[in-house]
Each structure stands twice: as C-alpha cells, then as structure tokens.
Amino acid sequence: MKKSQTCKHCGEYFTPNRRGVQKYCSNSCRSLAWRKSKTKPKENTLAGIIRKEKEKKQAETSTNPKDKISFAGIANATIGSGIASIAGSLFTPEENKPATKKDIKALQASLLKRYLPIRNMAPNAKGQYPYYDFEVKVVVFR
Ligand SMILES: [Zn+2]
Question: First and final CA of the chain: distance in angstroms?
C-alpha cells in the first residue's frame, strides 16, 4: 500500500480509501479538524466576525455571572421594597403614621398659639391645668 496523501489535521502520510476525497488519515482526525474549524473560524468572513462578537459577548457575560446575579438581586430587592413602601403609605391611614419631628413641632406650635397656660389658676379636680384657648376665647383644662 502506497501512502500518497497527508492528513489535513495531523500531517501524517496515509493511504486514502478513495483517492482525492479523503482529507484526513482517520475519523478522529476528521472530527478533530471539524471541531477546530467550528471553534476557530476564519476571522475575515462575516460568519467568523459574528461568531467572534458572540464569543466576546459570552465571555463578557460569563466572566462575572455572580455580579450579574447580585445586581439583579439588588434590583429586585430595591423594586420589592419600593413597592412595599408605596403599598405601606397607600394603606396606612394618616392618623396611624408615626409622628415625625416636624409633625410634633407643628403640633407644639399650634398648641402654643391656641392655648396659653394660666399661672394664677389651680388645676381642676381631674388634675388638668388651665389654659386660655385663643380660638374659642375660653379657659380650658387640659
Ligand atoms: Zn490525521
């Protein structure tokens, strides 16, 4: 048997079963060469460029899968808490909301404006202190 051809994958001389058709010495070389051509396409072809871009994108996204997941997690948590707080403010009646410092100051100011403590009057039987109510112009015990 005369070895007349070189394998396109490994470069070994081999005897083709069918002359001119067979390019590789064995099936394994053929499949290896096919896989190589799949993974390393010609860069100057459109398909090659597209594949290269895809590989680049895959590399970008697959290098930091944890970052992507944690970012998505944070985003979900943020959206979740945002919805929760919106829902909370929608379903909490004004009266039940905890008073803020601003609320308390406003309340104190309105109380000071409306009620003036009367120093020369004794507290009533209930232990309430006398105030002059500016709005109704009467003495009230509070
Ligand atoms: Zn070979």
Answer: 120
Rounded average pLDDT per 10-residue block, the chain, 142 residues: 78 78 87 81 69 78 58 57 56 67 75 81 91 86 90
CB-proximal residues (5 Å) to ion ligand 1: 7, 9-10, 25, 29
Burial label for 25, CB within 10 Å (0-12, 13-18, 19+), is: buried
Q: Rounded to the nearest whole angstrom, what is the distance from the C-alpha of residue 23 to the centroid of ligand 1?
A: 9
CA 51 / ligand 1 centre spacing (Å): 27
d(CA 26, CA 11): 11
